[in-house]
Design a protein that fits this description.
Number of helices: 15
Helix content: 40-55%
Strand order of the largest sheet: 8-5-3-2-1-11
Distance between the termini: 39 Å
Radius of gyration: 33 Å
CATH superfamily of the largest domain: 2-enoyl-CoA Hydratase, Chain A, domain 1
């Protein structure tokens, strides 16, 4: 009966999931049909930290907009920075675009910090709204926007290749400007970031000296100052004003010079929002979510290993672990931190099955906390595991270890019973009588039993004596 109910529940859940996918597909189809076909201005947005989901969204949405006939891409941006790999992928796509791209720091109070400054410099048109800022492009550490590319990697489109003499000059400049405590690796990262952003500035005729200052000294500018110093091209109060100012401008594309149509302000504007795939990718690549999925996956597999056949912990664990590994492989993780988390969880669970009076459990909590702090190897805002979440996980794990210790202490205070007397006094049920042999059901097991009185199936009996694999029983309330 229970198996039948479980089967019905699984079928109902599967039908519900299929129904959701059908609704999603219908909604996406309706949105696709409503999109403008023909010449138009395509609008995109970058909000928050830049990560793999941002790259996926921009690349796929721009390809779709180009197929629909877009004449200009407008990226509205408000970001504190982002990951090096994602930022470079976006910049390569911008530089290789066959359609001009205007990156617009908007609304008032928005910023294009760190990775946002690189993207702004890479765009064919750089624009800002009043009361916005850009800059602070100093690489925070290896894994930040200025990470040196691996050996053999080609420079990004628009980036000037370094020659031997240039490298020597840059190393000298880095040694002069870098503080005495900076390491050789930090100087290399900074110099690489400087070369990268200067190449972007030279491509579009913008202020390369200030770009270098933004990297080396974390300099920032307001919109008005950026326009005055030739860091950006336009200060526009809104999107309509931006389109009026870009009309007729000449920009540099990979294919050569290009003039933006004079009627660009009169074209319809179409907003390309992230679809469900982008939203799911953004969710699972959030460091907080990836961290929780990792812990749930590890705990699930461990409990499935200790309870074979439970299924639910194993299924949930595998799904969560695969999602966590997908997220972690696109995030800058520290593998020593990941190993410490796995060891910590294993030690906490081992405390349940091999009580060590706290040695395993406390060691596990310490390893879990240290590994969680080390897990995400970047200082980019929004790309680290929250200290509050780590504290909550540590608190719950500590309480679990405390509960285990209390349970172990309580069990030690109980009187010890010989193994051959554990079942004495328990109540069993006669399950069958075969050729005079009585079989009783006790604690989920079938035992052979002897009785001095006749018994019938379904009758309740009391265990009087345990003799190896045999039990001596008597009808309930009639034991002697």
């Amino acid at each position: 009966m229970s198996n039948r109910i479980s089967e019905l529940v699984l079928r109902a859940a599967a039908l519900q999931i299929l129904a959701w996918f059908a609704v999603f597909a219908a909604a996406q189809e309706k949105v696709a049909q409503e999109k403008v076909k023909g010449p138009h201005v395509a609008e995109f947005s970058i909000e928050g930290a830049i990560g793999p989901a941002t790259t996926d969204y921009l690349v796929r949405a721009m390809e779709e907009a180009e197929e629909d006939g877009a004449q200009l891409f407008v990226i509205t941006m408000d970001t504190p920075g982002g990951l090096d790999a994602a930022t470079r992928d976006i910049i390569k796509h911008i530089l290789a675009s066959r359609i001009p791209i205007a990156t617009y720091v908007y609304p008032a109070g928005a910023r294009a910090a760190s990775a946002g400054t690189y993207i702004l410099y890479a765009s064919q048109i750089a624009a800002m709204a009043p009361s916005t800022t850009l800059g602070a492009a100093t690489p925070v550490q290896i894994g930040g926007p200025g990470q040196a590319p691996p050996a053999g990697e080609k420079p990004a489109p628009g980036e000037r290749p370094q020659e031997d003499g240039d490298a020597e000059d840059q190393d000298k400049a880095g040694e002069e400007q870098a503080p005495p405590s900076s390491t050789a690796m930090e100087r290399k990262v900074t110099n690489d970031a400087v070369a990268f952003i200067r190449g972007l500035a030279n491509r579009h005729g913008r202020n390369a000296d200030w770009a270098e200052k933004a990297v080396r000294e974390a300099a920032t500018l307001t919109a008005g100052e950026a326009l005055e110093m030739n860091v950006i091209d336009i200060v526009a109060k809104d999107q309509a004003d931006l389109l009026r100012q870009v009309a007729g401008r000449k920009v540099v594309l990979e294919s050569g010079d290009f003039t933006i149509p004079d009627n660009i302000a009169g074209l319809p504007r179409e907003s390309y929002e992230p679809d469900w795939r982008n939203k799911l990718l953004a969710l699972i690549t959030n460091p907080q979510v990836a961290y929780i999925l990792l812990l749930v996956g590890i705990y699930g597999l461990i409990f499935e290993g200790y309870n074979p056949g439970a299924l639910v912990p194993g299924i949930v664990g595998i799904i969560c672990l695969l999602l966590a590994f997908y997220a972690l492989q696109v995030l800058p993780i520290n593998y020593a931190g990941l190993a410490l988390i796995i060891v910590g969880v294993a030690l906490i669970v081992a405390e349940v099955f091999m009580p060590s009076f706290g040695a395993l459990g406390i060691g596990g909590v310490i390893a879990l906390v240290i590994g969680s702090v080390m897990l995400i190897d970047t200082d980019v805002p929004g790309m680290r595991v929250s200290r509050g979440l780590i504290g909550a996980i540590a608190g719950v794990s500590g309480l679990a270890v405390l509960g285990i210790l209390l349970a172990v202490g309580k069990s030690l205070r109980k009187p010890r019973i010989p193994m051959d007397q554990v079942l004495v006094g328990r109540t069993a049920v006669v399950s069958d009588i075969q050729d005079g042999e009585v079989l009783v059901h006790l604690n989920g097991e079938i035992w052979r039993a002897r009785c001095d009185q006749p018994l019938r199936p379904g009758q309740r009996v009391t265990v009087l004596e345990q003799q190896g694999l045999w039990l001596r029983v008597a009808p309930e309330n009639q034991n002697t």
